[in-house]
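for the writeup, i need someone to sanity check this before i put it in the appendix. the sequnce is what the collaborator sent (i think, or maybe the updated version? ugh). structure was predicted straight from it, no edits. if anything looks off just tell me and ill rerun, i have time this weekend
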Amino acid sequence: MKFIDEAIIKIKSGNGGNGIISFRREKNAPKGGPDGGDGGDGGSIWFKSDKNLNTLIDYTFKKIIQAENGESGKKRNKSGKKGKDKILFVPIGTKIINFDNNEIIKEFKYDKELFLAIQGGWHGLGNTRFKSPTNRTPRKRSIGKKGETKVIKLELSLLADIGILGLPNVGKSTFMKSISSAKPKIGNYAFTTLIPNLGVFFTKSKKKIIIADIPGIISGASKGSGLGLKFLKHLEKCKILLHMIDLSVKNYKEIIKNIFIIHTELKLYNYSLYKKKRWIIFNKSDLIKKKKIKKKISKILKKVKNIKKYYIISSVTKNGINNLCKDFSKLV
């Protein structure tokens, strides 16, 4: 299924049905009293979160969504049928935003949350409602109220405990595949990951940890280059970020440069995201001789001062992954 994390739609609640003017006209009551019924209420628009959804793709095809109108009243004091409500299902992590002023109306954080977006129009009253001792044959009724119309933006932020980020082709997808049931596309070229991938990792105590793999970030991402910027918002709710680095790059100065590219782009995009707890993951250790690993990392740590926690792993051989998983299990 295609991953869509934004959609703009127009929603319309149903109009209330009109009340009617009617009088009983039967053989045994040729001059009967008023019997005009009320209209039915218009249908409302509701949103409901569903943990089984992870995309807003349904709303790329439906640009206008409308609830049913209420029916007009009927003779013999019968009310018109109420218009059916429309329930729109969205993934957890979806924000409903007022398109006109960018105000966040609702953010779904849990499964099966129900939210009334717009109320259906109220029903009109039939002439029976206007009968009084001084007016026994009222020729008055009321019209149902029009439903509301609103243009909204749906914006999805994936709710993951851990986010993985880094330059293209550093081994994020291979890492995801090695620790979870996720089946990301893997290839030896840039931008293999075109959309965020979600994986689920289970701790020994059967606790579920959700991990998000974000498409590779490149220099200039904060200005719109590459794919990473579009999906960085999906890291904002993560408790911890894993910054993955290709340790097999021969020149350690190039690795340092690559580390600072990610630091810079995070800071330019969102400073609070930059300040989030972040661990450095030196990947592809299987491609380097053990003697050279310590020497290379030592040089990197001297130049990059803000590395507080780091791990040396191989997503292919799974060397070092157990220790990493134990630590983020404790943290999350």
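Residues 162-331 form a domain with the Rossmann fold fold (CATH 3.40.50.300). The first strand starts at residue 6 and ends at 12.
thx in advance!!
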